[in-house]
Amino acid sequence: EFFVQHDQPLKPPPAQEDIDLPIPIETNFAYEKDLQTSVCAQISELFPGYGIFGGNSVGIEYAIAGKRIDILLEKKDGGDLLVVELKSGTADYKVFGQISMYIGLLLEQFPSRIVSGIIVAGAIDPSLKHACATMDRVALKVYRMSVELDDY
Fold first, then answer.
1. Contact 100, 135 (CB under 8 A)
2. Distance (Å, rounded) from C-alpha 21 to C-alpha 14?
3. What are 124's strand-pairing partners?
4. Are 137 and 106 in contact, with CB atoms under 8 Å apart?
5. 115-124 and 81-91 beta bridge pairing
6. What gap in Å lies between CA 40 and CA 54, rounded to an integer?
7. 76 or 12: whose pLDDT is higher?
8. What CATH number is given for 28-142 in this structure?
9. Whole-number Å distance between alpha carbons of 125 and 131
10. What distances in angstroms separate CA 87 from CA 7, 9, 32, 97, one per listed residue?
């Protein structure tokens, strides 16, 4: 059972100015779409030697078997495919199943190509690290945000 003690008078919460809280600094993208836009704008720097498969209209949100791959890249000099799965926050072991499914579907669709994957996330849960240790086709990357200022 749940009991509430009523013999203590209720105190009002402290005034906001009395609370000394740190100001949160946002270090992750709020939405995967924002992360996707940022990554796509920097493909050549982030993934040297790769381009977006079929161009932006095909390789971004690439549709396969009723699913959507965040970004599908193609190696410029060999045709290898790279699945890029984006998570704006912390990625856990469930993302491994997701990207493994995408790799399997692509291997079925393109049997003569080498297909691998990379998970890009704000943070990596240990469960994902352990899952990825079972397969060398999937790499893990954590993104960092930076701000640059230009003269106006």
1. yes
2. 13
3. 91
4. no
5. parallel
6. 13
7. 76
8. 3.40.1350.10
9. 10
10. 49, 47, 6, 14
**Residue spans per domain, the chain:** 28-142
**pLDDT, tens digit (0-9, with 9 covering 90-100), for 74-89:** 999 988 999 999 998 9
| Residue owning tokens 């030697």 | 49
Phi, then psi, of 59 in degrees rounded to 5: -80, -15
Please compute the mean of the pLDDT values over residues 47-63 and round it to a whole number.
92
Residue whose pair of structure tokens reads 């100015």 in the numeric block: 17
Any idea which of 3-17, 38-52, 73-87 has the lowest mean pLDDT?
Answer: 3-17
Contact by Cβ (8 Å): 87, 119: yes
Closest CA to 29 of 82, 64, 57, 70: 70
- In 3D, which of 40, 36, 45 has the Cα closest to residue 55? 40
pTM: 0.77
Nearest to 69 by CA among 28, 30, 110, 29: 110
Are 50 and 76 within 8 A, CB to CB?
yes
Question: Both ends of the chain: CA-CA distance in Å?
Answer: 65
How many helices (H) and strands (E) would you count in the chain? 5, 6
